[in-house]
Amino acid sequence: MQLSHFAEVTTGHGFRRRITAQPGGGCYVIQMKDVTPALTIDWHSVTETAVQGRRPNYLIKGDILVAGRGNHNYAVLIEPIERPLVAAPYFFVVRNHRPDMVLPAYIAWLLNAGPAQAWFKQSALGAKSKHLRINTVKQAPVFSLPLHDQHRLLAIDSNLFALQQHYQHLMALDNTLRKHLATQLFSARYFTRLHSFLALRTQRDRYFAELESLITDSQLLLDELAATDSVRESTAAYHQDIHRPPFSSRLSHYKPPVTRMSSLFVS
């Protein structure tokens, strides 16, 4: 199935000149600089400007922006919208016209998944500066699931993102604790620093417990999703496309590397 079966794809607003800040211009434009590594919009950096020329195709809640140039053609979901908003011309705007069939967040997830990203990579034009054509985006490979299974899949994705955030916090805390060990443990100020050291360790243990809980919750959600008839064929085809085993089988053997450092913090 192709993206165009349940979504309309258009281009961003065509600016005649360089996009510059014009306070009071009445319209805000999303550019690549406004997209965070977590694929959300940094609303504080969005530029207000004046839109001239053709009537703007204002973004609405649930629209998805696909980066049309560069080596990473990511997709970012736009919500909420509290101001007149347009996309820069190097974005493609994907608008869901089958809300009874597919969730906007699910479309964004599909476009960031392996098969769609592989399709963008092999179809991109240009030797140095890569870019996509609008038909390439329209023909992006997707697969449909019942709405309740889409909600389950998105819950898994949310859990895994939270797991990643917790893991990053754990790594940061471990680095701090190791620094304490190296610089304070045998110093003259050892006893004055011991309380802060133990407080950091307690915080680290709490994050680690939450991490293990997220892994368990993700495994249960994956098992529930994999057990439904509607996803068996689709997930099998997906994993065959990207030539790797299902994530559920890999997650069951997952043990955070941070546990290997636990011996440093034994009472």
Draw up the topology in text.
Blueprint: E1 7-11, E2 27-30, E3 47-49, E4 64-67, E5 75-77, E6 85-87, E7 91-96, H1 104-112, H2 114-123, H3 134-138, H4 147-183, H5 190-226, H6 229-242, H7 247-251
Parallel strand pairs: 2-6
Antiparallel strand pairs: 1-7, 2-3, 4-5, 4-7
Helix pairs in contact: 4-5
Can you name the CATH architecture of the largest domain?
A: Alpha-Beta Complex
Strand and helix order: EEEEEEEHHHHHHH
CATH topology of the largest domain: Adenine-n6-DNA-methyltransferase TaqI, Chain A, domain 2
CATH domain class of the largest domain: Alpha Beta
Helical fraction equals 40-55%
Uncertain parts: 241-267
Number of strands: 7
Oligomeric state of shown chains: single chain
What's the number of helices?
Answer: 7
Estimated radius of gyration: 23 Å
How much strand?
5-15%
C-alpha geometry: globular
Short summary:
44% of the residues lie in helices and 10% in strands. By secondary structure, it is α+β, with helices and mostly antiparallel strands.
Describe the protein's architecture and organization.
By secondary structure, the protein is an alpha+beta fold. The chain folds into two domains: 136 residues, Alpha-Beta Complex (Adenine-n6-DNA-methyltransferase TaqI, Chain A, domain 2); 119 residues. It has seven helices and seven strands; from the N terminus they run βββββββααααααα. The strands form two sheets. Strands 1-7-4-5 form a four-stranded antiparallel sheet. Strands 3-2-6 form a three-stranded mixed sheet, with no helix packed on it. Helix 4 packs antiparallel against helix 5. The longest helix has 37 residues. The chain is globular. It starts with 6 loop residues before the first strand and ends in a 16-residue tail after the last helix. The C terminus is likely disordered.
